[in-house]
Design goal:
single chain; alpha/beta; Endonuclease, Chain A; 6-stranded mixed sheet; about 10% strand
Length: about 280
């Protein structure tokens, strides 16, 4: 029997993708060469991707999705391998986000990616390039990822999305005035969707605000919970209910203290008119 390299999906996004690819191939009883013929590459290339020695390109992952009839699942997972400029845990969050039944977000300082306009996302990405934090290529990947994540909201059975924005998110100018005006209009449109709730946590909440950093809580299809929190340098994905449930409780408290959706949209529209 040929020795097969054991893959630990927790080791890296590359290993997780490789294991998924190998599992799908094994389920169909195909050799690496047989899969390679269907995708249009070499068996050596399949081996390198399965063992994590070569990252999957977007084209490779899309071709594999077509062969395995997995929608865009592999293409989405391949993002976690390529997006090396993203914080630890974030690519995995994006993968789960695409299948979540409910999404709860709290953001400080900037509009979250799921609600960003392309112009707003570009301003953020190019600012990071100017600071030397990321490359131009990585900036393009970030902008593309924003659009791909937003497609989650348009799927046939979209998730319920609850968003609480710290007041600083809507008052902090980004780019030219037209960029912010378009972004604020996008927030008002988001609030009108049947599966969304948008609230603003006003500065007046002061110490009653339970979070000082951005937080995301996902309810998956099987009703299990995930939370994701990040600082400036790292992110952490938490799956243990013992730690996630207190965060969910604090989020509910945040929603109670925040402005209603109607009052939040009114504040956004006042900003668009140039009134404090």
């Amino acid at each position: 029997m040929v020795h097969r390299k054991e893959l630990d999906p927790e080791k890296s996004p590359s290993a997780a993708f490789g294991l998924r690819l190998r599992t799908l191939r094994d389920e169909r009883g195909w050799t690496q060469d047989e899969l390679a013929e269907r995708i249009g590459c070499s068996g050596t290339h399949i081996s390198a991707v399965e063992t994590g020695r070569r990252p999957p390109t977007r084209q490779f992952a899309a071709s594999a999705d077509k062969v395995f009839r997995t929608g865009d699942r592999l293409e989405r997972q391949s993002q976690a391998v390529r997006h090396t400029a993203l914080l630890e845990g974030f690519p995995q969050l994006v993968e789960h986000e695409g299948r979540a039944a409910e999404i709860r977000l709290y953001e400080v300082g900037v509009i979250p990616g799921l609600l960003q306009t392309p112009e707003y996302a570009t301003v953020l990405a190019q600012s990071a390039v100017k600071r030397g934090a990321i490359t131009e290529e990585q900036a393009e990947e970030r902008i593309t990822l924003v659009a791909q994540r937003q497609a989650t909201l348009l799927r046939p059975s979209p998730p319920l999305v609850f968003v609480v924005l710290d007041e600083g998110c809507i008052r902090r100018p980004m780019g030219e005035p037209a960029v912010m005006d378009t972004q604020l209009a996008r927030l008002a449109e988001f609030a009108e969707l049947p599966n969304t709730v948008l609230q603003v946590a006003p500065f007046a909440m002061g110490e009653r605000r339970p979070f000082n950093l951005p937080i995301t809580i996902l309810t998956l299809e099987n009703r299990s919970l995930l939370s994701y929190a990040e600082s400036a340098q790292r992110g952490h994905l938490e799956r243990e209910n013992t730690f996630v449930l207190p965060i969910l409780t604090a989020y509910h408290q945040l929603q109670t203290e925040a402005l209603s959706q109607a009052a939040s949209v009114a504040m956004i529209n006042q900003l668009r008119k140039g009134t404090p």
